[in-house]
Amino acid sequence: MLFAERGYRGTSLRDIAKRIGIKAPSLLHHFPSKQQLYLAVLDKMFESLEDAANAIAWGRESRQERMRQAVGNAIDFIASHPDFVRIMWKEMADESGIGRQVLKRRLPPLFSTAVNFIFRGQRDGEFRAEVDPLHFMWSLNSITIGYFTTAAMIRRLWSMNLLEPAMIERRKREVIDMVERTLFTTNPRTPETPQE
């Protein structure tokens, strides 16, 4: 995706139209501007994340199992959508990025879903009470996205391909292990009545 390769400012509508095999005026028929196209791309990315987060938040398994699934699913999603990571990283790093409005609208509810999931797990004894849910999610986000954003540098410096399937599986195991040791209680109690 050109936005991921070149950034918003480095990508023209003409470049996009050429890449997908249409004329620029045809592209403008669907999106009135480059900005509207870019914002639609960001919104589409967040829809997938929100659907996955809601499925985890309201699933039937224990919260510990759902947290394991969430980590594995997030890493799989990022691994299969490398353009998403590059665009997100640029948007998070650029205080004046064109996608700021989408991030401000979509990230807080997504984080709120995750933080509330942890709060409920703490209340029900599945997650350690002393863990700050917001800081935990910020940290988890950083170690998950950071792995993928540094993959090219790691390849250049150490000739390791962090994106090959075996390395992705290893990363999932490592992050899940960290989550279990940091967040999970050792003997979760089963609540009498689920209080979602």
Can you characterise this structure?
- The protein has helices at residues 2-6, 13-20, 24-30, 34-57, 63-80, 82-93, 100-123, 133-149, 151-158, 165-183.
- The protein is mainly alpha-helical and 196 residues long.
- It has a single domain, classed as Tetracycline Repressor, domain 2 (Orthogonal Bundle), CATH 1.10.357.10.
- The chain is globular.
Mean residue pLDDT = 88
Q: In angstroms, what separates the terminal alpha carbons?
A: 39 Å
CATH architecture: Orthogonal Bundle
Low-confidence stretches: none
Give a short account of the largest sheet.
none
Kindly report the name of the CATH homologous superfamily: Tetracycline Repressor, domain 2
Content-based structural category:
mainly alpha
The level of helicity is over 70%
Number of strands: 0
Shape: globular
- The fraction of residues assigned to DSSP E strands is under 5%
> How many domains in all?
1
Task: Output the number of helix runs.
Answer: 10
CATH topology: Tetracycline Repressor, domain 2
Please write the string of helix (H) and strand (E) elements: HHHHHHHHHH
CATH class: Mainly Alpha
Give the radius of gyration.
19 Å
The oligomeric state is single chain
Which key features would you list for this structure?
mainly alpha, Tetracycline Repressor, domain 2, 72% helix, globular
Question: Gist?
Answer:
With 196 residues, the protein is mainly alpha-helical.
SSE topology:
Layout: H1 2-6, H2 13-20, H3 24-30, H4 34-57, H5 63-80, H6 82-93, H7 100-123, H8 133-149, H9 151-158, H10 165-183
Helix pairs in contact: 2-3, 4-5, 4-7, 5-10
